[in-house]
Amino acid sequence: MKKYLSLAVLGMSLLFIQCTKNDEVLPEPVAPGTEPEVEAIDVTVQNFMWQTMNLYYFWQSDVKDLADDRFTTKSEYREFLESEQDPGKFYTEKLLFSEDRFSFYSEDYKELTKAFSGVSKSNGLEFGLSLFADSDDVFGYVRYVVPNSNAASKEIERGDFFTGVNGITLNLDNYEELLFGENDTYTLNMATISDNVINNTNREVTLTKEADLTENPVYIAKILEVNGRKIGYLMYNSFTNEFDEDLNDAFGTFKSAGVTDLVLDLRYNPGGSVNSAVLLSSMVYGPYSDKVFLKARYNERLQEGYENSNVDLNTYFSDKTDKSSPVNSLGLNKVYVLATGSSASASELVINGLDPYINVVHIGTKTTGKNEFSVTFVDDFDNGNVYDPERENEINPDNHWAIQPLIGRNENSVGFSDYTDGLQPDIALAEDLSNLGILGDKNEPLLKKAISEITGISAKMDFTVHHPVKLVTSSKMFTKTRDNMYMDFITPLPIKKQ
């Protein structure tokens, strides 16, 4: 077969939500014998979702069903909660603003919070999916393999291609079920690319998902010596705060070796912890805890309340990690960032947050365009429904649902946050399907371009892209964390009963 490529904060007593605690959402009483007994619909989850969204949601004022005056009686409120018995549909169809691309829910908060710590059910193969020319058929290309995973034990690597699963050709209608469905084990039907043509082969690779695979986001940290320059190269694939010490250690190595230039590879990094983004930026620029890294902006009601209470909504560069380790900073005035359409949220935050202070040279393609942050909420009424791992015993045992709504937007120190269409590169260079290269190698095209900019040697180098990646989606977009950017919300806001 031949197919052609197409190329958190303190509590404020003045801010309350007018709703009821979960166990108090009851139907209006009726006199005995006047109405037949009807089993009450359990709306515990819907009630938790509504009260949280009414208080915190960034677009609260734009969703009519979240208005403070939407309901005049408890029975009217309960009728609304009962109008959709599927909590997932209730959340997405009744509570989300039409322009919200990123808020989501999880039926199991434990699974979600494990994913945020870098633990997920995965076979360790990270890949992108693209379309054939003039076709709905899909092919996959391997981006990288997670160390110590099931995929790492198989003969599959970056630059490999596949066109089918279990003998079934991939297309737009079936790829989600075949690759991200219920089956933990599947067989990839491999292919090769030659002269702008993808050819199927007889090679197969069988992969099995592991229940708790942990991925260290510090994928590559190495020092390249080129023409007398010591260039630090860091490929960082997720902002996972459980690995902040590993990140700091990598910069410690760079600093000890006298690194003077840095290439920060965020091309496949969909985001994560804002705190990790602050630390990474401090390691690049400096541990200046008196300088603003970002300014948080909330919904109209919260923003006004915070400002009236003189709450500092700024986040500053940091001089130490959460474990009190001094930040190893390179103190650079220029950094080269490799970023693509798969770079989102916290990755974009680093670029935007550093931009007022140093020269950030973005090499690659336009980023995703996600400048809002979220918080994990669970059914913990007395904690404002904000998830706190130290309050696991206080979470309603009958409600394991979590929601991850966007609750604010981050601006940099000069007030810029207008990049919902993505951050445009300073030097445009797409990945080439026919020459993906080896990550961390001097000749890998995006890294090679950064090195040429650092050294000034580029006159005879060819950076022609013959088969640019045209991404449909990627394996990371089917994880619990996806392109999320989450903030620590230390002191939740109160939720008041009617």
From TrEMBL:
<dbReference type="InterPro" id="IPR005151">
    <property type="entry name" value="Tail-specific_protease"/>
</dbReference>
<protein>
    <recommendedName>
        <fullName>PDZ domain-containing protein</fullName>
    </recommendedName>
</protein>
<dbReference type="Pfam" id="PF18294">
    <property type="entry name" value="Pept_S41_N"/>
</dbReference>
<dbReference type="GO" id="GO:0004175">
    <property type="term" value="F:endopeptidase activity"/>
</dbReference>
<dbReference type="GO" id="GO:0030288">
    <property type="term" value="C:outer membrane-bounded periplasmic space"/>
</dbReference>
<dbReference type="GO" id="GO:0007165">
    <property type="term" value="P:signal transduction"/>
</dbReference>
<dbReference type="GO" id="GO:0006508">
    <property type="term" value="P:proteolysis"/>
</dbReference>
<dbReference type="InterPro" id="IPR029045">
    <property type="entry name" value="ClpP/crotonase-like_dom_sf"/>
</dbReference>
<dbReference type="InterPro" id="IPR036034">
    <property type="entry name" value="PDZ_sf"/>
</dbReference>
<dbReference type="GO" id="GO:0008236">
    <property type="term" value="F:serine-type peptidase activity"/>
</dbReference>
<dbReference type="InterPro" id="IPR041613">
    <property type="entry name" value="Pept_S41_N"/>
</dbReference>
<feature type="domain" description="PDZ">
    <location>
        <begin position="109"/>
        <end position="194"/>
    </location>
</feature>
<dbReference type="Pfam" id="PF03572">
    <property type="entry name" value="Peptidase_S41"/>
</dbReference>
<dbReference type="InterPro" id="IPR001478">
    <property type="entry name" value="PDZ"/>
</dbReference>
